[in-house]
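Job type: complex structure
Entries:
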Amino acid sequence: MPNDQSTPGIVAGRLSADQIAQNFGDLHPPLDAHEARVAADRCYFCHDAPCMTACPTSIDIPLFIRQIATGTAEAAAKTIFNQNILGGMCARVCPTETLCEEACVRNEAECEPVQIGRLQRYATDTLMARGGHPFTRAAATGKRVAVVGAGPSGLACAHRLAMKGHDVTIFDGRKKGGGLNEFGIAAYKAPGNFAQAELAWLLGIGGITVDYGKRLGDGLSLDDLQKSHDAVFLGIGLAGVNALAVSGNHDGLASAVDWISALRQSNDKADVAVGRDVVVIGGGMTAIDAAVQAKLLGAETVTIAYRRDKAAMAASEFEQDLATSKGVRILYNAAPKSVGKEGITLARTATKGGKLIETGETLTLPADQILRAIGQTLDGAPGGLAIEGGKIAVDATGRTSVAGVWAGGDCATGGEDLTVTAVAEGRDAAEDIHTSLTGGA
Amino acid sequence: MADLRSNFIGIKSPNPFWLASAPPTDKEYNVRRAYEAGWGGVVWKTLGEAGPPVVNVSGPRYGAIWGADRRLLGLNNIELITDRPLEVNLREIKQVKRDYPDRALVVSLMVPCEEEPWKRILKAVEETEADGVELNFGCPHGMAERGMGSAVGQVPEYIEMVTRWVKQNSRMPCIVKLTPNITNILYPAEAAKRGGADAVSLINTINSITSVNLDTFTPEPTIDGLGAHGGYCGPAVKPIALNMVAEIARSATTAGLPISGIGGITTWRDAAEFMALGAGNVQVCTAAMTYGFKVVQEMISGLSEFMDNHGLTSVDEIVGRAVPKVKDWKDLNLNFVTKAVIDEDLCIKCGRCYAACEDTSHQAIEMGEDRTFRVKDDECVACNLCVNVCPIENCITMKELPLGEVDPRTGRKVEPYANWTTHPNNTAANAG
Ligand SMILES: Cc1cc2nc3c(=O)[nH]c(=O)nc-3n(C[C@H](O)[C@H](O)[C@H](O)COP(=O)(O)OP(=O)(O)OC[C@H]3O[C@@H](n4cnc5c(N)ncnc54)[C@H](O)[C@@H]3O)c2cc1C
Ligand SMILES: Cc1cc2nc3c(=O)[nH]c(=O)nc-3n(C[C@H](O)[C@H](O)[C@H](O)COP(=O)(O)O)c2cc1C
Ligand code: SF4
């Protein structure tokens, strides 16, 4: 008998392949030309626009929307890419409800912001569909820069450096580029293999070589890179995950990041196994993504257990609503205590005097699969670099404590752990590297 | 990025987008910021004679018309020419021109209709090393009551006379700015040409009252219970301005006279349309006043993308491209037949096309029981009203009948081009 939603254990094929394919379609389908015009028409072209300030890459949002409104989507895309070369991915994955769209002045009068993210996608999709690459390289400088990590920060850094005429080699431990764009982001946010398409398009600038399967700390040292290059940028993300401190054993206990990564890499989502009763531990974007995708694969019950209250949850209100709209239950104030045959036992918690305490009550949920999403950690950072709060310490321009070495993105201090922040930091570090290589400060 | 450089009557600017003479160009602070924002040139706010400056009202000087979502479509103003002292303006002009030699700086002028005041002010402007002068024969309120502005612009003989004085007393290029408040734009344009103008610019604002307050029965904007007509500008005036530009561009009497296009230009597309109808460059006022100086960035990128997509390498390749296609009604093909076609898949069944056609046109749309709408080809005269009132883009389109096909309305085959001049009903044509 084929599997269905009530089949016990962790199995694939709980839903029909068609249903799964449909579930994993675009979260926000692209706007057509008419919809884009209508959406663009709502922009007031604000002076010193708050949305622009709210965007970590400071895209000139009013300008690009006006360019869409006047029928020049390609010019709009150039405005976007000038600031954010991964504007295509950011249009899909940015939590706009806490960034640009939260700042939109339309919220004041109508509680409905301009759809900046979807308009950004409209513009970038239009230009990328045309093929070719919109930027050209400056005259060769003869300088060589090593970039470690082909995630958003590394790619943004490499692109900006290549544009300035430097030769860049990217080293990445994996066999595929894109970083978490490829291995982490929820499948329904960037369907159609977009991460790889965007990577290939970005490399169209020229002057960037990517060396896959090369891991820093594994036959490749910072010393070596510094000797063979004029500058080094580290964009290695957070490769480690936090362990769950609970008693007992459970066969279905796994890291949410690993499970999502396997899901992203599967050729057919219908082959991905998922539990009947899934419990996800955590309160961030990873927890939401794991829970939603488990539900989309056909898990019968999916519960996110978060140890603090709703207001403290890192995942935005929009993300929480998305999860509950898909049928995920979010249990607030529930901290994991033990796991075993019966599933998972959670302690009820409360915040008293600013401290999280257990109330003494517990609750046990059946669980064939328990995904822990309680944070990633820096792993594999080369010795000798100053570390601060678990991240590589950098200044505002991305300089680490070691001369000639810059860092940005999730692995470095500063900013939220978001794709767009990683892009901003990679880009800004590239500008600083350029200044320092061409005789500036 | 296409090359947008412009050379208008010898005045060079990095792009063809100038700010029109108006508040945006009334002082050094503005003009510097406009240049920094990317404007290719400015026409300084109109200067008057030395002496006690002009006085403006200190109550509201603007009124407006809005579209849906409070989009500003038309602006009305009762502002006069600059109310700052002449010497201050001249000093600032000189300073700005020195600091921005690559940008165009033209000075707009309006003094009484006598030669001496014109001589005096021309000499003073020449000393600033500005690129040229624009004669404001267009301002329709206030100054016109004192025999200047449109009071001059409405009398071709005066235009010719003053233009001649200016050309005789100065080496600077001279642009004559025309008022649209006349019967036929060719008369003032021809007069300017006769007077030796290097170019005309148009349009200035149109006489207007934007609204009436029905509680107080006063026209708006209201100054202490009274109102006066103002000058209308902004997107609403563009069609009027486009036609006037085209008339000058295509008339044998004024053909070849350079034109600076003004009136409702808000986007790159508006600018390109003016240029296609013969404007060598464009001037903008209301769009800058509505959205700030930064709007020019969209104009620059948009025109550039348009030129790149069309393989154009110079803005001059756009100028006048549409002029040969602007004709008189009598030249239009009376054998050209189209029919409206409603796309049922796109139709949202609002019935606006039906109401429009049934009540006010040719009863050529039928409405089915299930609110399906279909065009009756044997009634449709192709007026286009249904297309214009339909809320859905491309839902109703016009299909051309090929040569030889029978028009179900007339029962006649579509024949090759023939216009009114040879039409059998044209008794005038057939008389001779
Ligand atoms: C499940 C999940 C969902 C997310 N969803 C969103 C979202 O919807 N929106 C959003 O804005 N952000 C989201 N994020 C966060 C976002 O993905 C990251 O902030 C962003 O990818 C950080 O980019 P980065 O370049 O710093 O690092 P990464 O994307 O992590 O890339 C690091 C790269 O470095 C390589 N690398 C690591 N160590 C080494 C080494 N020692 N040697 C060589 N190469 C190495 C890795 O293989 C990887 O390719 C999500 C994160 C996760 C985990
Ligand atoms: C407030 C205001 C003041 C103006 N003052 C002048 C002026 O001093 N001299 C002039 O030649 N035109 C003046 N104009 C007319 C503009 O230069 C321009 O011709 C007109 O506004 C049409 O362009 P637009 O539709 O882009 O605004 C003024 C327009 C406005 C709105
Ligand atoms: S725009 Fe400025 S000057 Fe005009 S009314 Fe408002 S605040 Fe006053």
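Summary: The interface with chain A takes residues 69, 267-269, 291-292, 294-295, 297-298, 301-302, 304-306, 393 of chain B (CB under 8 Å). The CA atoms of residues 238 and 263 of chain B lie 5 Å apart.
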